[in-house]
Design brief:
Blueprint: E1 2-8, H1 14-28, E2 34-42, H2 48-53, E3 59-64, H3 70-80, E4 86-89, H4 93-105, E5 109-120, E6 123-130, E7 135-140, E8 146-150, E9 167-172, H5 194-197, E10 201-205, H6 212-225, E11 228-231, H7 233-237, E12 258-262, H8 268-271, E13 279-284, H9 290-294, E14 297-300, H10 303-313
Parallel strand pairs: 1-2, 1-4, 2-3, 3-9, 4-8, 5-8, 10-11, 10-12, 12-13, 13-14
Antiparallel strand pairs: 5-6, 6-7
Helix pairs in contact: 3-4, 6-10
The protein binds flavin-adenine dinucleotide.
């Protein structure tokens, strides 16, 4: 069974997402599947060389939209993807939105957060983590085409294999209708998440920090120590820190060499965001908190007092 890859070439993280999908195909897709083409949504064809250099497969289709706008992209893709059986999308916001909406528009299936894909009885089977990441569920997909986005942080980034590009086609969809009901639209640049996803040294603060002042102390220590900092979901949801600092399944899946956790309980949804790291050191005043058993070393103490002591040393 064939599959194609769909990427947003209008996004700044295009290169990283392409590398992630390469890693996903290498490690998480059964060998019975055959990669067909990479479809890239792009503003125009000016950066053709760049897209060719990052293509995930030997066949590339460039779809020019003038600029990324989901309604317009979906209208164009309904035509471009009409013969596809399986579309693989990245684990970012673009992938999650378009996989579900495109699956519905093509009359097939949309699926997000996929950790593994294999073939059983001629049908694709997708695995996904459920029940707060504690169980893996397998879904046999009966209705094609299947548009799936991969689970955030599941795949190692992989370099392009030395396979020459065989074919590039250019599809001009700049005059495609779609999104006429949108009166105006603009982009608000968000701070780059890459720092945290790729951070080697990460400090994570939980509700035990007590409030925005505690987060400030964590931030100051991180800056002094040359570390990045992130927070648990309740800390971000309480407005103590920006949402793009959230670590865990709803935010950033990090893989630090060293992770210090201050006042976080270690709930499964947070822990998934640091579990792939190498060393975890936790500070929590509750010796029975899950993070204590999940960490390589722990201090049963007040996290604010420990933060202050570490700040003196940094
Ligand atoms: C669908 C879903 C998705 C989710 N996604 C995420 C996610 O991506 N990221 C995420 O973080 N959560 C996520 N959650 C929430 C998650 O389940 C937990 O509720 C959350 O991680 C708890 O955050 P916390 O550890 O900061 O707070 P708490 O659970 O309240 O823990 C605070 C900890 O701090 C300790 N403490 C308190 N005061 C001090 C002190 N002075 N010194 C030292 N220790 C102290 C306490 O002993 C406790 O262990 C999700 C939940 C759901 C249902």
């Amino acid at each position: 069974m064939k599959f194609s890859v769909l990427l947003n070439g209008c996004s700044e993280s295009f290169e990283r997402r392409a590398a992630e999908l390469r890693g996903f195909i290498r490690d998480h897709v059964g060998h019975e599947f055959v990669a067909d083409k990479t479809i890239v949504l792009c503003p125009d064809f000016k950066k053709r060389d760049y897209f060719e250099a990052n293509s995930v497969t030997p066949k590339l289709a460039l779809v020019s939209l003038g600029g990324y706008q989901p309604e317009k992209a979906l209208a164009a893709l309904k035509d471009v993807c009409r013969d596809e059986e399986i579309m693989l999308l990245p684990g970012d916001f673009f992938g999650a939105e378009i996989s579900v909406r495109l699956g519905a528009r093509l009359g097939g299936a949309g699926f997000t957060g996929v950790t593994q894909m294999r073939l059983e009885d001629g049908k694709p089977v997708c695995d996904k983590k459920v029940y707060a990441q504690k169980m893996t569920a397998s879904f046999k997909i009966e209705q094609l085409p299947l548009c799936l986005s991969i689970a955030k942080g599941i795949a190692e980034e992989a370099d392009r294999v030395n396979e020459p590009l065989r074919e590039t086609v250019e599809i001009d969809k700049t005059s495609e209708a779609g999104g006429e009901h949108i009166v105006s639209c603009g982009l608000t640049p968000q701070p780059d998440e890459a720092g945290l996803e790729q951070s080697d040294f990460l400090m994570v603060g939980g509700k035990g920090l007590g409030g925005p002042e505690g987060v400030e102390r964590l931030k100051r220590l991180a800056e002094k120590a040359g570390a990045d900092w992130g927070v648990s979901r309740p800390v971000a949801m309480s407005g103590w820190a920006p949402m793009e600092r959230m670590i865990g399944v709803s935010g950033i899946m990090a893989k630090p060499e060293m992770c210090l956790c201050f006042g976080a309980s270690g709930a499964a949804a947070l822990y998934a965001g640091i579990a792939r790291g190498r060393k975890i050191i936790a500070v929590n005043r509750d010796g029975k908190a899950p993070i204590i058993h999940q960490s390589d070393a722990a201090a049963i103490d007040d996290c604010l007092a420990v933060l202050d002591e570490l700040a003196k040393l940094a």
